[in-house]
């Protein structure tokens, strides 16, 4: 097959091993390629337990390659002796790891549950919508992959994304929607939700004809796509929501998690393969960022577009730390267990000042002049190297 | 402090309350800081220095030095809580663990994993209580997660003394004529 | 990462709420005067935050005093101007 250049839209693990990569080609085509990709992760702990783990892994059907190694854990002095575990099956690695962690919960694990896009970014420098050159054989197996631009380019050439938006005519929590509105490049299509078979037939035709790269929805995660999938099953007319015919969709269950003293609820998510689904009502920063912001976020964090749109900036920063650690051959611990250093209550008051913002003098003022700084906070952050991951001096003022 | 009398003995005490008895724990921190160093492990990001400072100020003008005797660290995951207790040296400084179970109730951590970690934490709490008073406050899990109740029960069973503080119910207003409404 | 201290506005509102019973027991005219005092303190919240005092109420009281003194100075100036106009 001829060499390809284009934009990397999506990549994910294949059930048979290796990865699937989707490229938006310069030729206008959407190309699905395969790439061999091994996953490496590590275990550390008392020798006896590592030996037991070795024996357990030797008997495991996945037959991972095992070896001893010495690696750097940034929270420990010197090098850490680890058991290195490698497998060619990226799809089954998470399950292998979960089983290991259950059997040997006392061991420390590293690089064990990292997103595939972050691993790929660390190894090849790829990122969502990276301009890439790919050489593949007739079976579409990639033999060479090169990234042609940088995630930090200020004005990268825009990928010619095909975007289809879908929304019900009202909020399903307030009233039963009657119409589904699809929009693409300024044209709108209205489908009645009452007539289910015609709805499905028309949607299938639209998806097949437009073959969108992006599905932007309202209530897509929590109502629309689950409803459409249920209708598709009932009428035996499944919708080709994912572009990959071999995969369905990925369901992420709803749940709540504890973060800095708050319980935060996260609705269920429907993620696609070979295509990106973003539900504007379930995307954390969507109101502020919109699609351009989500794409920029995905570029620099390395998170898949569908994930980058849904998570907080903090998760994006953690992802960047992970890829930096991987590139520098530093172990990424599985569990966040490095604790805060104790500080005194007196220090807490002294150092938690924040910035000083003058309050306006209330009243009616005349002859007012205004000085505005362009991108003041970002400029200060860049100039003074202020960022969550910047190392701090031992004591303020030193 | 009605329930606890100072000075405290070297033992593990557990206080259970709907909101993890935070005001009481802060008051205890203030009282202990008057006479010596203490450690605070904040499990639910509940420590508020202002009430502590007000309380200290009622007893002494040496506010800053008293506050400097409170050594505070926060745990944002149960793994951090576990690691912090494991690394804590056993000395004479009292330990207050505020809302210890907050991170153990995290839905994203399996119940058996939370139990395993808590068992380790209890071992260290008991170790630390050999040389200093250890007071732990906790709240019951939220209603949709009854399976997590076992964590609270395990903690209570491990303690030398356990208090359960109930929420005050709203007082019944008498009717005008003294008759039942 | 994560809140370490309540914001100065939260601390201010807590202090104000702590005086709710005192305020309730005042006559109406006195309540309005007390509200003015708290409003005066509110004008200097950012300075109170910057002061990072362990007892923010002391900073609020100083802010109230500051505003009162500014009013005294203003009245003094006005009085001097009026005197000057009368004597002219």
Entry summary:
The complex is a heterotrimer of chains A (398), B (181) and C (88). In chain A, 28% of the residues lie in helices and 26% in strands.
Description:
Chain A is of the alpha+beta class. Helices cover 28% and strands 26% of the residues of chain A. Among the domains of chain A are: 4-36 and 119-147, OB fold (Dihydrolipoamide Acetyltransferase, E2P) (Beta Barrel); 163-318, Nucleotidyltransferase, domain 5 (2-Layer Sandwich), CATH 3.30.420; 347-384, no CATH class. Chain A has 10 helices and 19 strands. In chain A, a hairpin with a 2-residue loop joins strand 11 (179-184) and strand 12. The radius of gyration of chain A is 25 Å and the shape is globular. The N and C termini of chain A lie far apart (61 Å). The relative contact order of chain A is 0.12. The mean pLDDT of chain B is 89. Chain B has one domain: P-loop containing nucleotide triphosphate hydrolases (Rossmann fold, 3-Layer(aba) Sandwich). By secondary structure, chain B is of the alpha/beta class. With 88 residues, chain C is mainly alpha-helical. Chain C has one domain (8-87). Chain C has helices spanning 8-18, 20-24, 28-42, 45-51, 56-87. In chain C, helix 3 crosses helix 5 (56-87). Chain C is flat and about 65 Å long. The mean pLDDT of chain C is 94. Chains in contact: A-B, A-C, B-C. The A-C interface holds A 260-261, 346, 348-350, 352-354, 356-359, 362, 388 and C 1-5, 43-47, 49-50, 52-54.
Which two chains have the most extensive interface, and how many residues on each?
A-B, 24 and 36 residues
> Approximately what portion of the residues of chain C adopt beta-strand conformation?
under 5%
- Sketch the topology of chain A as an H/E string, one letter per element: EEEEHEEHEHEEEEEHEHEEEEEHHHEHH
Question: What structural category do the secondary elements of chain A indicate?
Answer: alpha+beta
Helix content percent band of chain C? over 70%
Report helical residue fraction of chain A: 25-40%
Largest sheet of chain A: 5 strands, antiparallel
- CATH fold title of the domain at 163-318 in chain A: Nucleotidyltransferase, domain 5
In whole angstroms, the N-to-C terminal distance of chain A is 61 Å
**Average residue-wise pLDDT of chain A:** 91
CATH-derived architecture of the domain at 163-318 in chain A: 2-Layer Sandwich
